[in-house]
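Reviewers asked in the last cycle whether our approach scales beyond single polypeptides. To address this, we selected a multi-component target totalling 527 residues and predicted its structure end to end. The input consisted of the following lines:
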Amino acid sequence: MAVTSAGATRDGNAPARPRKNRTFLVLNIISIVAGIAIWWGLSLAGLQFPTPAEVVSAAWKMIQDGTLATDVGASLGRVLAGFALGSLAAVIVGFVMGWYTVARGLFEPWIQFFRTIPPLAMLPLVLVLMGIGESPKIFVIFLAAFLSCVISTYQGVVNVDRTLINAARVLGAGDGTIFGRVVVPASTPFILVGMRVGLGSAWGTLVAAELLAAQAGLGHRMQSAQLYYDLPTIFVGIIAIGVLGLIMDRLLMIAGNKLTAWQENR
Amino acid sequence: MSTPKISVRDVQKVFPVGKEPFVALGGVSLDIADNEFVTVVGPSGCGKSTLLNILAGLEQPTGGAALVDGKPVTGPGPERGVIFQQYALFPWLTVRENVEFGMRTAKVPKGERRERAEHFIRLVGLEQFADALPKTLSGGMKQRCAIARAYAVNPSILLMDEPFGALDALTRVRLQEQLLETWSKERRTVMFITHDVDEAVFLANRVVVMAARPGRIAEVIDVDLPYPRDEDMRLSPEFGALRNRVWHAVYHQRQIKEPAK
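The resulting structure, written as structure tokens, was:
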């Protein structure tokens, strides 16, 4: 009897993984449906929420008159510009800091200092100095992405296995080759982690910056909806921000997995 | 006799640790002839890896000189290939790309690079894994790949730092035999560091026994067993006698005052 059941378990082991994944997916779907149902219930019960149906119709209206596309475009444009510039600067500065002790000594105090300041706290100053166009918002996002990414890039460079550098040296590699063919690939996983954190931070900063000072964008849309007590539009904004953030994070994760598929323990 | 391939002349290495500097090597002298296979065995802290790193050009001696082909070693060079205990394969490169690494830095043209990589990958028996990433290989296969990579830049000297130290006993024995086979086809001067007495005797023309505090050479034992060496030889009484001698030289260093006979 015991033998039979043990055999059955072992036989059942092979398809266990997909079945478990399917269970997981089913649970996910149940959770989402239940969440929406509770939301619907609460709004019908007299809480000041719009019902899901109202939110969907508000979203549909915003899609048809093009405001959603304009807002998403404005927000994405800002975040991508700031994030790209910030990551690029972070990778360059991180490499320089990791490679040259002098640069590390010079950069470190400033980066540590500015890291403790939320980028949004810089917004009043930046608005005064740079006006109210696109540049102050992009700059604040740039700061957010840069500060999140620079330390991990630098850590990546510092943590490159000495043995790998020695192996390259005894194979005749000079400093340039060691940098390009050992240090850069070896620190890629660290850079990608930094970029993911940086993207999250950039997205959060963007929306807050738009709440304070913008003529378009998801944050701005929610801000003006607040004035008219237009809750469905606010809900559409929140959901759009969440969905876009999730999509960007997943895209970066997929790209990262492709780039670091060589890693030993995954 | 002509100039020895490797000549270590009164090499010292002192690390400034705290108040009392640590003497890793206290005046070591050793000559290794062309195409000789020398193993260096000794307890931890005897400076055997330091000696190898100095010959590799990865560390500088604080006294004395290390000469290769009569010229002092000032840094790493393509005539000296190094194999590390931790394999040190580039994990983002395939077996083939790892083997080609040194040839790429030496700007060997692509066609020739391919061909030579093929040759050495086949020599270590990894042809089926040429396009695999290191993470998919076993420890023994990784080290074979590292050996092919070192061979591919065509060094006249191979410096091996406990290359089989992290492998299980069976794999180690198999790799020792394969290494000798490779070496018999592609003869090089080899300095091989180990802490395994069996391994030291099985591979070498000559076993250098080192002692610690300060790091120095305690004894040099000639191994006059013929190549090719195989399992039968490993179990022979001659091998056993040499093994015992080396064992005593390593583990009873106090008692050794003169070469035992």
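Chain A has two domains: 2-44, 52-259. We regard this as preliminary and will revisit it once experimental data from Aim 1 are available.
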